[in-house]
Specification:
It contains nine helices and no strands. By secondary structure, the protein is mainly alpha-helical.
Length: 162
């Protein structure tokens, strides 16, 4: 358990040592004209998955070991999501066939920004059942667990209601 705690401190301080690409690398990728909207969706889902696993870990004991560490990691991942989407939309014209995906991304990012504080508060409540019952957590898990991006596009129209 101590080793795991030390590892988390290390990762929080220097970032994921197994991650080969930095956020600045991804910003360059998303500014490149050949980068598709599907690449953006893939990256957003990966970051959303990271956030979901921090807000809703498999082991409830992991929740309370280092609340400040996971909260700052969640905020960093959300900042990356915002930056990647902003950079992609700034540098690309949305193709007609990608309009639904573009709208879904914008809706998802807006929803995420509106709900993240509440999700963090629920996660910090130290009641794992509250997290399991949280609609926002469930929505995030559904989107993050679907690597195809179909769930993001399918759920986006309903996200404005939450």
């Amino acid at each position: 358990k101590e080793l795991l705690t030390e590892w988390r401190k290390f990762v929080n301080e220097v970032g994921d040592p197994y991650s080969y690409y930095t956020p600045s690398h991804w910003r360059q990728v998303f500014s490149h004209p050949d980068t598709t909207i599907d690449t953006l969706i893939d990256r957003l889902i990966r970051n959303a998955g990271d956030i979901s696993s921090l807000l809703y870990p498999d082991d409830p004991e992991e929740y309370y070991e280092n609340p400040d560490g996971w909260e700052s990691a969640v905020e960093k991942d959300l900042e990356d999501i915002n930056n990647y989407a902003r950079v992609w939309f700034k540098n690309h014209e949305v193709k007609e066939e990608d309009e639904d995906k573009a709208k879904a991304i914008k809706t998802f990012v807006d929803w995420f920004n509106r709900n993240i504080d509440e999700m963090i508060e629920v996660s910090k409540s130290e009641d794992y059942d509250d997290v399991m019952d949280s609609k926002a957590h469930k929505i995030l898990r559904y989107i993050a667990n679907d690597e195809t991006g179909n769930m993001l596009v399918a759920l986006a129209p309903q996200l404005d209601k939450f």
